[in-house]
Amino acid sequence: MSARWTSAVLDPDVAGGLAVARGPDGFLLDDNGVLFPREWLKRQDLDILCEHGIGHFDGEPVFLLELRSAAVVSGCGWRGLRQFMLEGDFDIYKLLGYAAQIGTWAREHRFCGSCGQAMTQIHWERAMHCASCDLRSYPRISPSMIVLVTRGDEILLARSPRFVTGVYSTLAGFAEPGESAEDCLVREVREEVAVEVKNIQYVGSQCWPFPHSMMLGFHAEYAGGEIVMQPDEIEDAQWFNVHALPPLPAGRSIARHLIDLYVARRLGLAEPVLPG
C-alpha cells in the first residue's frame, strides 16, 4: 500500500476531510484534481446515494460520495476510471480504484440478497446489515488468473473483440468455485486457445477495479498443442517474437508487466517493477 494512500473504514457522521464524487460518468474533477473539501462538495447540488469513509491520502481523511446520477458543477467535469489508470498520479488512481469498488458494492447491496429488505450501512466496519434476517454483506473480490505463455523467444498473445483495435494481450479468466489458481490457469488457456502449459510460476498481483477483480499474474511455458481460438471470446491469437511485438496493453496493467518482464529477461535488460 502506498505511503500516500491507505484504505480505512471512517465514520461518515464525523465532519471534515476530503471527498471524491462518483457518478455514472466517472469521477468529478476540476483543475486541481478529484479531491475536494468534503463539506464544500456536499453543499453542491449532488444526488447522493450514499457516503462512505474510505481512507487517508497524504494524511487527510477521504470520503466517497456515491451519486445516483450525474450533475453539473461549475468549473468541473467528469472522467472515467480507465483514464486515471492510463495517465497522471498512480496513487490517485489507486484511491479511485478502491472508491469505485466500494461505490459499486454499496450500490448493489442496498437490499438484502436473502430476504429483500432494505439494508443499513454499518459505520465501524465495511459492511451492510439487514436487521430483518441479520445478514451482513461485505465487499466481494473476484479472483482472476492472467498468464503469459512463452516458447523461447516467442510469447502467446491474443485479442478479444472488446479490445482496442490492434491491441494484443495475455490470456486471462475468472476462477470457478472449487478451483485452485493453477487449475483455473490451465483451464482458461485450454479453453481460449487449446494450448497446454507447464512450469507455472506466480509473478504478482494487481487490483483490477472493473468492477471488483483481483488479478493474479503468472508465467507459464508452452507444453503442446496448436492454437484453436475460442469462438466469441478470442478474435485472434498468435505467437509473437520478442523482437516483433504488436500493440500492447496499457503500461500500468499487470498484463503489460508480464510481457515487459519476460522481454527484459530474454534481452538482458533491467527488469520492470509492477506498479502497485
UniProtKB/TrEMBL annotation:
InterPro entries reported in the protein's UniProt record: NAD-cap_RNA_hydrolase_NudC (IPR050241), NADH_PPase-like_N (IPR015375), NudC-like_C (IPR049734), NUDIX_hydrolase-like_dom_sf (IPR015797), NUDIX_hydrolase_dom (IPR000086), RNA_Hydrolase_NudC (IPR022925), Znr_NADH_PPase (IPR015376)
Amino acids binding a divalent metal cation 1: 172, 192, 233
Reported cofactor(s): Mg(2+); Mn(2+); Zn(2+)
Keyword annotations of the record: Hydrolase, Magnesium, Manganese, Metal-binding, NAD, Zinc
Entry annotated with the keyword tRNA processing: no
Nudix hydrolase domain ranges (all copies): 139-262
SUPFAM superfamilies: Nudix
Residues annotated as binding substrate: 82, 125, 138, 206-213, 255
Binding site for a divalent metal cation 2: 188
Chain ranges for the short sequence motif Nudix box as given in the UniProt record: 173-194
Enzyme Commission code: 3.6.1.-, 3.6.1.22
Pfam families: NUDIX, NUDIX-like, Zn_ribbon_NUD
Positions contributing to a divalent metal cation 3 binding: 188, 192, 233
Catalytic activity: NAD(+) + H2O = beta-nicotinamide D-ribonucleotide + AMP + 2 H(+); a 5'-end NAD(+)-phospho-ribonucleoside in mRNA + H2O = a 5'-end phospho-adenosine-phospho-ribonucleoside in mRNA + beta-nicotinamide D-ribonucleotide + 2 H(+); NADH + H2O = reduced beta-nicotinamide D-ribonucleotide + AMP + 2 H(+)
CDD domains, alphabetized: NUDIX_NADH_pyrophosphatase_Nudt13
Residues holding Zn(2+): 112, 115, 130, 133
Cofactor annotation comment: Divalent metal cations. Mg(2+) or Mn(2+).
Entry superkingdom: Bacteria
NCBIfam families, alphabetized: PRK00241.1 (NF001299)
PANTHER family: NAD-CAPPED RNA HYDROLASE NUDT12, NUDIX HYDROLASE, NUDC SUBFAMILY
Family, as annotated: Belongs to the Nudix hydrolase family. NudC subfamily.
Classification via HAMAP family: Nudix_NudC
Subunit structure: Homodimer.
Function: mRNA decapping enzyme that specifically removes the nicotinamide adenine dinucleotide (NAD) cap from a subset of mRNAs by hydrolyzing the diphosphate linkage to produce nicotinamide mononucleotide (NMN) and 5' monophosphate mRNA. The NAD-cap is present at the 5'-end of some mRNAs and stabilizes RNA against 5'-processing. Has preference for mRNAs with a 5'-end purine. Catalyzes the hydrolysis of a broad range of dinucleotide pyrophosphates.
Protein name: NAD-capped RNA hydrolase NudC
Organism of derivation: Pseudomonas shirazensis
Gene name of the record: nudC
